[in-house]
């Protein structure tokens, strides 16, 4: 990286310039100062020796740019270069730019990794913005180039995103420097557009020239190999308000009434190549004719009241049938994807079984209102109650209420389920899709989905991903701008949509689709085989699961063991806790399915967002910071002992069974759990029941566990990092809260550094460490995680094929370098750029 030297007559002036440049680059660039002379009587002046020492202090083979204030500063610098000798000074440039503006522009350009020549150019152009701001019509003085505005690219694949700027002071120097830092590493042409002017997004001067104010729409446009990554990095930074806090929110924001971040984007405009850019929520390419899908709530019939008994019977019949449909859907989605997707329908089932709901119905029926009218008014009230909650996540749940409402109403009025039999493949276009709509989709006919509404965390998005259907959301006015039957192209990764593609665009999309299919087939074919890095290092690729069906699916997907059995699911869909015998059989069967491969059963992780109906927990203001996981088990010993007994018995028969405790914070908790396990073992043995103590591991998912890792590592055989929880606790950001979703990323520097600490503690103690949070299943992160020393990656079975391919593409030594680079990065956008 190019370094900077500031030469000034005045030490105070140089100090100030240094501090400003440091602030702009957050200390990324090496900057040295040579200012004043060693004469207390007359300290103003410059000293060649001091300048030479400053250059040597920050010398970099990529170059040093020296910025000088005036007159003798230039002579002293010349003399310093002479003193140094020619070999070292070939890469040292003295710059004629004004000291303050030049130093700012040069340091930002250097921090962005630009060459010495580019850094010098940026410094030379530093006055442009000031000229523009002071007098738009002023002619620039001779010598300052006017051709810094780049000519737009004519690439066919130019894409853009728009952002409504909310920063109170617009895009001034600091946000501009954040933009340059976030996007300049990408191999792409990137531009910013505002007020109909377009400038290079890699030049801080040009960005300042745009004069972007609060309330302006700023477009980021990119083309080239890494255009999508660059746009994503820009979006991420934009969501973080270019690393500034925005205290004064502007009116425009208040007008937005939706919970979804997508509404911060302005109207989506078709670019000159017919491309619309919205939000990709499920990756893949689809090419097919558009099909408009409109789901409506069936209307209550206008009929007279039949009497309480009869109306109640109609209600219970419809409700029971709906619950049956929902549990079938839950089973089906569990098979198609993983347990977490089917939980959506299990949750719908639980909402329907809520005694409060039955009470409300009963009350209305006793007021002589027929069941259909009663049902529709209760659904409306309940949905409204969700919409009124301030949590965005809860507001989004109103859709689930309408979904349940529609299902029961259809059964009440005897209307058959809307099942459209499609005879040819289509891209479904809709305003929104409920989870039930999505689950009914036939993935062989629905090639893609485009929606006007619904965020990337909506249940429809989760289901689309589980079904492997490419999907895009947030495309406003979709239904009016698309035509049924006309062939469209979507890219679920980049969020691009072509509603009327040209033959050239169709051809190129077809090629990309074939390439993706080929890669997928290759990955599928190799998924059963063990994956080694190119230099022969093996990494364990394990599965996360919750049911026996998941176990078969995991084995068939190439899982080399089970890194996480979420045992709490066994406790959830029932009216009382499962018996010891039931649990024993369940754990034994999973262990048996995997033969001699390791199976790690996590003990009950209840509490937080997973309450148990039959366990009276009492109200907690902050359930995620409350009694969950091991804490809850230690406070409910009887419940815990039943599980421990079942595990001890299963281990006696299956030596491949291991046990892991969740939410451990302190060594005392671990001691308590281990001593309870040993008491249970002794009691079983006393009763003549065969029992064996399994090897014990813990989840690292609380910051305290990372800090206590050295002490905890002495007590266990392995660590497994639960990055889903570790992220929310390290970042103090609820993983279900959209307003802080920009913080909830396991690739946040703070989270990665936590993982680094845990890896060190584990390896120092000679025990292996794995990751079983969602990040383990992201092939983009595989190289970095291997480089960080992670021994095992445990994930949803559908991710195994892609992660194994990523392992095969990794070179261990390079991975170590990559991990070091990533861990040295200072911001999330920088890390995303590297990934
Ligand atoms: C985790 O927190 O990363 C984890 C795997 O546990 P869960 O998602 O079940 O809380
Ligand atoms: Mg967890």
Automatic annotation (TrEMBL):
GO terms for biological process: phosphoenolpyruvate-dependent sugar phosphotransferase system. Residues 1-134 form the PTS EIIA type-4 domain. It is found in: Cytoplasm. Component of the dihydroxyacetone kinase complex, which is responsible for the phosphoenolpyruvate (PEP)-dependent phosphorylation of dihydroxyacetone. DhaM serves as the phosphoryl donor. Is phosphorylated by phosphoenolpyruvate in an EI- and HPr-dependent reaction, and a phosphorelay system on histidine residues finally leads to phosphoryl transfer to DhaL and dihydroxyacetone. This is Phosphoenolpyruvate--protein phosphotransferase. Belongs to the PEP-utilizing enzyme family. It comes from the Bacteria. The gene is ptsP. Keywords: Cytoplasm, Kinase, Magnesium, Metal-binding, Phosphotransferase system, Pyruvate, Sugar transport, Transferase, Transport. It catalyses: dihydroxyacetone + phosphoenolpyruvate = dihydroxyacetone phosphate + pyruvate; L-histidyl-[protein] + phosphoenolpyruvate = N(pros)-phospho-L-histidyl-[protein] + pyruvate.
């Amino acid at each position: 990286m190019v370094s900077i030297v500031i030469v000034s007559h005045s030490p105070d002036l140089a100090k100030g310039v240094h501090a400003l440049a440091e602030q702009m680059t957050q200390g990324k660039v090496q900057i040295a100062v040579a200012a004043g002379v060693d004469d207390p009587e007359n300290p103003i002046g410059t000293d060649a020796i001091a300048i030479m020492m400053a250059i040597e202090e920050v010398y970099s083979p990529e170059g040093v740019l020296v910025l000088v204030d005036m007159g003798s500063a230039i002579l002293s610098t010349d003399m310093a270069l002479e003193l140094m000798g020619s070999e070292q000074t070939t890469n040292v440039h003295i710059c004629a730019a004004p000291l303050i503006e030049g130093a700012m522009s040069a340091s930002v350009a250097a921090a962005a990794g630009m060459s010495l020549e580019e850094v010098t150019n940026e410094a030379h152009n530093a006055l442009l913005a000031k000229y523009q701001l002071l007098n738009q019509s002023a002619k620039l003085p001779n010598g300052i180039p006017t051709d810094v505005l780049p000519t737009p690219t004519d690439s066919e694949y130019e894409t853009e995103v728009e952002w409504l700027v909310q920063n109170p002071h617009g895009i001034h120097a600091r946000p501009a420097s954040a933009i340059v830092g976030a996007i300049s590493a990408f191999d792409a042409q990137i531009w910013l557009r505002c007020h109909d002017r377009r400038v290079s997004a890699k030049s801080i001067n040009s960005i300042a020239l745009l004069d972007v104010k609060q309330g302006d729409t700023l477009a980021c446009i990119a083309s080239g190999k890494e255009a999508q990554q660059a746009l994503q990095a820009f979006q991420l930074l934009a969501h973080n308000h270019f690393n500034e806090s925005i205290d004064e929110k502007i009116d425009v924001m208040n007008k937005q009434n939706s919970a979804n971040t997508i509404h911060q984007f302005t109207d989506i405009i078709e670019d000159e190549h017919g491309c619309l850019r919205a939000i990709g929520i499920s990756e893949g390419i689809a090419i097919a004719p558009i099909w408009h899908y409109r789901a409506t709530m069936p209307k209550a019939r206008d009929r007279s009241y039949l009497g309480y008994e009869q109306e109640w019977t109609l209600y219970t019949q419809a409700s029971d049938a709906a619950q049956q449909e929902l549990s079938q859907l839950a089973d089906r989605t569990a098979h198609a994807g993983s347990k977490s997707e089917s939980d959506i329908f299990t949750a719908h089932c639980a909402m329907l079984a809520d005694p409060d709901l039955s009470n409300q119905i009963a009350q209305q029926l006793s007021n002589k209102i027929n069941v259909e009218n009663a049902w529709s008014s209760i659904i409306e009230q309940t949905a409204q109650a969700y919409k009124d909650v301030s949590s965005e996540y809860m507001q989004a749940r109103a859709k689930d209420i309408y979904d349940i409402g529609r299902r029961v109403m259809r059964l009440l009025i005897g209307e058959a389920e809307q099942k459209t039999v499609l005879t040819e493949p289509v891209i479904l276009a809709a305003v929104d899709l409920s989870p039930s709509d999505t689950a009914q989709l036939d993935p062989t006919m629905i090639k893609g989905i485009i929606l006007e509404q619904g965020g990337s965390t909506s249940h429809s998005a989760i289901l689309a991903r589980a079904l492997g259907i490419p999907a895009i959301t947030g495309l406003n006015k979709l239904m009016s701008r698309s035509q049924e039957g006309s062939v469209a192209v979507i890219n679920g990764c980049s969020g691009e949509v072509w509603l009327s593609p040209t033959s050239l665009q169709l051809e190129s999309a077809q090629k990309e689709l074939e390439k993706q299919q080929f890669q997928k087939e290759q990955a599928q074919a190799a998924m059963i085989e063990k994956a080694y890095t190119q230099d022969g290092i093996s990494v364990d690729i394990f599965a996360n699961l919750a049911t026996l069906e998941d176990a078969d699916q995991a084995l068939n997907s190439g899982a080399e063991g089970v890194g996480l059995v979420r045992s709490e699911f066994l406790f959830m869909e029932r009216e009382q806790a499962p018996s010891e015998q039931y649990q024993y059989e369940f754990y034994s069967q999973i262990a048996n399915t995997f033969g001699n491969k390791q199976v790690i059963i996590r003990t009950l992780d209840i509490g937080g967002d997973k309450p148990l109906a039959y366990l009276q927990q009492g109200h907690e203001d902050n359930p995620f910071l409350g009694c969950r996981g091991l804490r809850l088990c230690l406070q409910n010993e009887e419940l815990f002992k039943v599980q421990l007994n079942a595990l001890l018995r299963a281990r006696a028969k299956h030596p491949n069974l291991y046990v892991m405790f969740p939410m451990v914070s302190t060594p005392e908790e671990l001691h308590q759990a281990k001593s309870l396990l040993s008491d249970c073992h002794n009691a079983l043995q006393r009763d003549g029941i065969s029992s064996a103590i399994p090897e014990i591991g813990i989840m690292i998912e609380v910051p305290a566990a990372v800090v206590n890792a050295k002490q905890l590592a002495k007590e266990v055989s392995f660590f497994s990092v639960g990055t889903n929880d570790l992220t929310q606790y390290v970042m103090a950001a609820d993983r279900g809260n959209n307003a802080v979703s920009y913080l909830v990323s396991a690739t946040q520097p703070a989270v990665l550094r936590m993982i680094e600490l845990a890896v060190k503690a584990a390896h120092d103690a000679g025990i292996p460490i794995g990751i079983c949070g969602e990040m383990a299943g992201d092939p983009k992160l595989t190289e970095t995680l291997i480089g960080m020393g992670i021994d095992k990656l445990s994930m949803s079975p559908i991710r195994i094929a892609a992660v194994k391919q990523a392992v095969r593409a990794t070179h261990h030594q390079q991975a170590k370098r990559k991990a070091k680079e990533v861990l040295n990065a200072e911001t999330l956008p920088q890390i995303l750029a590297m990934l």
